[in-house]
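EI: anyone free to look at a 336-residue chain?
SC: sure, send it
EI:
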Amino acid sequence: MTTTKMTQRIGPEHEGRHLADDDPAYNESSYYNFADAGSGVTGWVRIGLQHNRNAAQAGALFFLPDGRTLFATDNVETSQQDTLAAGPLTLEIAEPHVRQHIRWDGPTSEFTDARALTDPRSAFAAAPRTPVRLDLTCSGRGDSLGADGETNVLEETMARGHYEQFIRVQGTLAVGEDTFAVSGAGLRDHSWGPRDWAGPVRYRWVTAAFADESQLMLLLVNRQDGGTTLEAMEWRDGTLRDVRLEDIADSWTDDGFIEKVTCRIVTDRGPERITATVRDRRQHTPLRHRRPDGAGGELITRIGYGPYSFTRDGSAGAGIVESLDQLIDGRPVSMP
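SC: here you go
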């Protein structure tokens, strides 16, 4: 078991695009998530740049308080210009590690039960299209911490360079004729290097913001070599604090989704238990990645998302749990 604290402070030179090596699996990803406990709006946006394929993906996932889920993925050609933009999504670095602007302006697929995405072809064909406009200003909380990919590498199968930063967000989300004010908190993630979604056996990535203004990032990765990587960050009382992740345990629904996660951590105040319960089962969102296994078969990875309600020592919170599992015959390998 390896415990890796994300303690390397990342400089401004890593905010933009990086020079790719010649690996066809090279991917540069910029991801922002957020949760507003007041409005109930939760979501994320992501740009994935495949420099060696001159391609890019823009993705967005929004969970609305009425139970609707909005999802979009847009595959586009991209040039090698120094920009973080693809299709309907633009990420602007106004000041490195201090302030960014996010804009999404484009259609999404609307689901009353996102579990339909287990069969994506049928789900997208049946889903109505809903225009969405997102305009957020993100302010960094503390340093960006992680690995520069040269002197420090966190998780080889996912990326060589990788950093994360807690953020506050302010702005609006317009869905059709409805507009939601967004005032909440979240996490941003920037990674670069060859990416293999089939690399881990599973991972659990937990991000949460609480009513007492604290924030947590917890990551557990079960590797193919049998080892486990644990990473954690905490923002509390206006500073980044030491925190150690001990374990993340799953509770499953009968149809194969994670309804609840229980996290055990140790802070300077002692042991703590963090509990996350999915807000609405209909908002379990299974996304899928497929690639050949080199022997005539196929490896299928499911990356699941949902909006979760959190409790921590009497403080309520909101956030996202991202769960990656390899599938065998359609079933997550880690499911009991």
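EI: The two ends are 22 Å apart (CA to CA).
SC: 👍
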